[in-house]
Amino acid sequence: MHPRLSNWLRTPPSPLTLLAAGALGLAAVGWSRSPVPQGAPPPPTQSTPMVVSNGGTADSNGRMVAVTGTDITGASVLYLVDTEKMRLAVYAAASTGSYQGVRLVGARRIELDMELNGYNDKSEYPYGELEKLFAEKGLLSLPAEKPKGQ
């Protein structure tokens, strides 16, 4: 493993990272609740923004999910998730102090993030344990293991 990446994985996530994870969770809920058949445009809808904690809002138009909030410094934060291109962009806006204006905080492709079974997971049951329990109860069939060397 690359030494720089290895050290990064050992550090606790920042509050902004946790907020981004929350935005991704909201996006995942949106994706699971409103599947659109491939090739068909999403039906036109009247969207009502959802108010989330700390006065933030979340809204979607079928392709983009936008979540707003406030970070620990008091700056306004906007998370944009492109559900078709699987991209996340985070912007911060401040109107006081030495920095005034809008700036891009970070952006990334998230399709591989969505393939993770867990990352920094502090759940009572990690994904692997749940998968095994469900399989033992006949609620899930596990794929056959590949022979070594394949």
Mean pLDDT: 73
Helix content bin: 10-25%
Model regions low in confidence, pLDDT < 50 over at least 5 residues: 1-10
Count up the domains: 1
**Through-space gap between termini:** 22 Å
Tell me about the largest β-sheet.
6 strands, antiparallel
Specify the structural class: alpha+beta
Helix-strand sequence: HHEEEEEEH
Order of strands, widest sheet: 1-2-3-4-5-6
User: Strand percentage, roughly?
Assistant: 15-25%
Count, helices: 3
Shape: elongated
How many strands?
A: 6
- Rounded to an integer in angstroms, the radius of gyration calculated over CA atoms is 19 Å
Write the layout of secondary structure elements.
Layout: H1 3-10, H2 15-33, E1 50-51, E2 57-60, E3 64-70, E4 76-82, E5 87-94, E6 101-109, H3 127-136
Antiparallel strand pairs: 1-2, 2-3, 3-4, 4-5, 5-6
Provide the descriptors you would attach to this structure in a database record.
elongated, single chain, 3 helices, alpha+beta, 6-stranded antiparallel sheet, 150 residues, disordered N terminus, 6 strands
